């Protein structure tokens, strides 16, 4: 009677055909950038297999040919060098490394996420004068916020874009580092607090695709997913109209509540967004009593505030302290205002 481990192995082998139903999205993408990245993976793997496969085959060949029981194998204990073998051993890997280096150099520039798209797909260039769809992305704990500055709407854990229209993502984070990733669209790019990263991409086929965070960010990381809708222009206009019909407004106070950690948030849509909200998020100054990082850096670039600025400090108000989880903690001081002498003013 077969043992249990053997039966378990047979069951696992019989279950292998079930894997044929898996959707290997990285190998069958729907966006041109992801498609080029897929091709890069295939080409690189093929080049490396040119060495790996012969080495594996020759290992088995040598082991079989020079086995102890093979009395016909030539035995030469004084052998120490072969020019032909040396050329094969070093020339083939060197040529493959050169090819991989050239491929990496070209693809690094062509697929730079900050580089605007030059084509929509193979053989189709971006029409002159085409304006990309701008989407501002904010990684929150643990959800995604998408702002559409041109359309004036926003959504949580859902976004949409027209097929065959370039998309420019502007990406940041509210607290910790995350990674914005839509496998069918393009490779991942990090979202970091106080910074803005950029990704240019295009979706070529209509459909519903999954987006996620590819960088661990705490307790709710596993549920930090969203839906990306690739739509025709009519479908995208309807999606925008539905967002405007929600009637909700994403003001700064609403954002500060939305920013609080929460898990597996349902989709939310906003009909309007406070002006300059994304810039305030990047510059860490959504609250009215905080100085924007851009202003602080501009002051530092002019030499800083010196002693007068160091004296001009204030504590956070109780409501802000409670929202930041600082209630009961020792008071912390922050710059409250900036004073400039009249001698420094340019009239």
TrEMBL record:
<keyword id="KW-0472">Membrane</keyword>
<feature type="transmembrane region" description="Helical">
    <location>
        <begin position="84"/>
        <end position="106"/>
    </location>
</feature>
<dbReference type="GO" id="GO:0042597">
    <property type="term" value="C:periplasmic space"/>
</dbReference>
<dbReference type="InterPro" id="IPR006333">
    <property type="entry name" value="Cyt_o_ubiquinol_oxidase_su2"/>
</dbReference>
<dbReference type="Pfam" id="PF00116">
    <property type="entry name" value="COX2"/>
</dbReference>
<keyword id="KW-1003">Cell membrane</keyword>
<feature type="transmembrane region" description="Helical">
    <location>
        <begin position="40"/>
        <end position="64"/>
    </location>
</feature>
<keyword id="KW-0564">Palmitate</keyword>
<dbReference type="GO" id="GO:0005886">
    <property type="term" value="C:plasma membrane"/>
</dbReference>
<keyword id="KW-1133">Transmembrane helix</keyword>
<dbReference type="GO" id="GO:0004129">
    <property type="term" value="F:cytochrome-c oxidase activity"/>
</dbReference>
<comment type="similarity">
    <text>Belongs to the cytochrome c oxidase subunit 2 family.</text>
</comment>
<keyword id="KW-0249">Electron transport</keyword>
<dbReference type="GO" id="GO:0009486">
    <property type="term" value="F:cytochrome bo3 ubiquinol oxidase activity"/>
</dbReference>
<dbReference type="GO" id="GO:0016682">
    <property type="term" value="F:oxidoreductase activity, acting on diphenols and related substances as donors, oxygen as acceptor"/>
</dbReference>
<dbReference type="Pfam" id="PF06481">
    <property type="entry name" value="COX_ARM"/>
</dbReference>
<keyword id="KW-0679">Respiratory chain</keyword>
<keyword id="KW-0732">Signal</keyword>
<dbReference type="InterPro" id="IPR002429">
    <property type="entry name" value="CcO_II-like_C"/>
</dbReference>
<dbReference type="InterPro" id="IPR011759">
    <property type="entry name" value="Cyt_c_oxidase_su2_TM_dom"/>
</dbReference>
<protein>
    <recommendedName>
        <fullName>Ubiquinol oxidase subunit 2</fullName>
    </recommendedName>
</protein>
<dbReference type="InterPro" id="IPR034227">
    <property type="entry name" value="CuRO_UO_II"/>
</dbReference>
<dbReference type="InterPro" id="IPR036257">
    <property type="entry name" value="Cyt_c_oxidase_su2_TM_sf"/>
</dbReference>
<dbReference type="InterPro" id="IPR010514">
    <property type="entry name" value="COX_ARM"/>
</dbReference>
<dbReference type="InterPro" id="IPR008972">
    <property type="entry name" value="Cupredoxin"/>
</dbReference>
<keyword id="KW-0813">Transport</keyword>
<feature type="domain" description="Cytochrome oxidase subunit II copper A binding">
    <location>
        <begin position="130"/>
        <end position="242"/>
    </location>
</feature>
<feature type="domain" description="Cytochrome oxidase subunit II transmembrane region profile">
    <location>
        <begin position="18"/>
        <end position="115"/>
    </location>
</feature>
<dbReference type="GO" id="GO:0005507">
    <property type="term" value="F:copper ion binding"/>
</dbReference>
<dbReference type="GO" id="GO:0042773">
    <property type="term" value="P:ATP synthesis coupled electron transport"/>
</dbReference>
<dbReference type="InterPro" id="IPR045187">
    <property type="entry name" value="CcO_II"/>
</dbReference>
<keyword id="KW-0449">Lipoprotein</keyword>
<keyword id="KW-0812">Transmembrane</keyword>
<keyword id="KW-0560">Oxidoreductase</keyword>
């Amino acid at each position: 009677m077969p043992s249990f481990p053997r039966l378990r192995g047979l069951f696992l082998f019989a279950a292998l055909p079930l894997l044929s139903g898996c959707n290997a999205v990285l190998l069958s993408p729907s966006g041109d950038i992801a498609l080029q990245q897929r091709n890069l993976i295939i080409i690189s793997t093929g080049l490396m297999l040119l060495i790996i496969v012969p080495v594996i085959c020759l290992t088995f060949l040598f082991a079989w040919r020079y086995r102890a029981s093979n009395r016909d194998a030539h035995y030469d204990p004084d052998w120490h060098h072969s020019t032909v073998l040396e050329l094969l051993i070093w020339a083939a890997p060197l040529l493959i490394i050169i090819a991989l280096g050239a491929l990496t150099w070209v693809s690094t520039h062509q697929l730079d996420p900050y580089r605007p798209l030059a084509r929509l797909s193979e053989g189709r260039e971006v029409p002159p004068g085409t304006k990309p769809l701008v989407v501002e992305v904010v990684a929150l704990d643990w959800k995604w916020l998408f702002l559409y500055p041109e359309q004036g709407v926003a959504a949580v854990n859902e976004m949409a874009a027209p097929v065959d229209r370039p998309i420019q993502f502007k990406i940041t984070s509210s607290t910790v580092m995350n990674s914005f990733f839509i496998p069918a669209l393009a490779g991942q790019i990090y979202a970091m607090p106080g910074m803005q990263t950029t990704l240019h991409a295009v979706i070529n086929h209509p459909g519903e695709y999954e987006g996620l965070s590819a960088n661990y960010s705490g307790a709710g990381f596993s549920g930090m997913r969203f839906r990306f809708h690739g739509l025709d222009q009519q479908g995208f206009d309807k999606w925008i109209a539905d967002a405007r019909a929600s009637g909700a407004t994403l003001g700064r106070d609403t954002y500060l509540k939305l920013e609080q950690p929460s898990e597996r948030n349902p989709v939310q849509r906003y009909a309007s967004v406070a002006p300059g909200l994304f810039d305030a998020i990047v510059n860490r100054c959504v609250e009215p009593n905080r100085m924007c990082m851009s202003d602080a850096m501009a002051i530092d670039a002019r030499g800083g505030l010196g002693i007068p600025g160091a004296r001009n400090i204030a504590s956070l108000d109780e409501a802000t302290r409670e929202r930041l989880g600082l209630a009961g903690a020792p008071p912390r001081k922050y710059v409250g205002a900036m004073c400039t002498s009249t001698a420094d003013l340019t009239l």
